[in-house]
Amino acid sequence: MARVEADVFETFVPKGGFVCRKGEPVDNWIGVISGMVKMNNFSASGKAMTFIGVPPGSWFGEGSLLKNEIRKYDTMALRDTRVARLPGATFHWLLETSLPFTRFLLMQLNERLGQFIGMVENERLLDLNTRVARCLASMFNSHLYPGVETLVQLSQEEIGLLSGSSRQRANQALQVLEKKGLLRLDYGGIRVLDLEGLRRYEADDAI
C-alpha cells in the first residue's frame, strides 16, 4: 500500500478532453476518481462508436497493460474528470507479489468479458428501449463500478452515446421505462427504482 500511495498520481481532464488516445503506449492503469469517461473509437468515415462508460470508483486499461500493447481505443471525459494513474511498473509488481490483487484482477477481467458479451447480444438482438434498460442496469456491477448509487448521474445525451442512439431517441426510451416504474428522471440524473426490472426488461414490454 505504501508503494502504491507513493507511485500513483492524479490528473485532471476537462469535459471533452482525452484521458488517453488510441495508438499511445500503455504505461499506467487508470482509475476514475470523479466525473465520467467513455471508451470509444472512430471509423474511417469519422463515425463514433462508444463501448462503455466508466464512472467514479472504477479502473480500466488492465488488458492492454497485461498484453504490453498500444492502446486500441480513445478514452474521453464526458464531464470534468479526475483520474488516478498507477504506473505500469507498479501494476506488474502488484501482480507478481500480491495474491489479493491478482484475485481482484482476475475478477475484473471476468466481469469485463461478461459485460462485453452482453453488449454484443444487446446490440444484435434487442430493440433500443431494451438496450437503454440494459445499459443502465450494466452500471450496477459492484466489481467493475463499486461507486455507483441509485442516482446515475448521466444526461440523456450520455445515455444515447452509451446505447448507440440519439439524445432524442434515448429520451423516448427513458420515458417508456419511467412509465413502467423502473426509473425516475430526476434533476441531475436518472434514479433507478427497480434494478432487477431493468435487467429483466424485454422488447415485448415496450410501449
Describe the secondary-structure layout:
Elements: H1 2-7, E1 9-13, E2 18-20, E3 28-34, E4 37-42, E5 48-54, E6 59-60, H2 62-67, E7 74-77, E8 81-87, H3 88-97, H4 99-125, H5 128-138, E9 151-152, H6 156-163, H7 167-179, E10 183-186, E11 189-192, H8 195-200
Antiparallel strand pairs: 1-8, 2-7, 3-6, 3-8, 4-5, 4-7, 9-11, 10-11
Can you characterise this structure?
It comes from Janthinobacterium kumbetense. Pfam families: cNMP_binding (PF00027), HTH_Crp_2 (PF13545). Residues 126-196 form the HTH crp-type domain. Residues 1-112 form the Cyclic nucleotide-binding domain. By secondary structure, this protein is α+β, with helices and mostly antiparallel strands. The chain contains 8 helices and 11 strands. The protein has helices at residues 2-7, 62-67, 88-97, 99-125, 128-138, 156-163, 167-179, 195-200; strands at 9-13, 18-20, 28-34, 37-42, 48-54, 59-60, 74-77, 81-87, 151-152, 183-186, 189-192. The strands form 3 sheets. The protein has a 4-stranded antiparallel beta sheet. Strands 2-7-4-5 form a 4-stranded antiparallel beta sheet. It has a 3-stranded antiparallel beta sheet with strand order 9-11-10. A hairpin with a 5-residue loop joins strand 4 and strand 5. Helix 3 crosses helix 4. The longest helix has 27 residues, at 99-125. The model has no long low-confidence stretch (mean pLDDT 86).
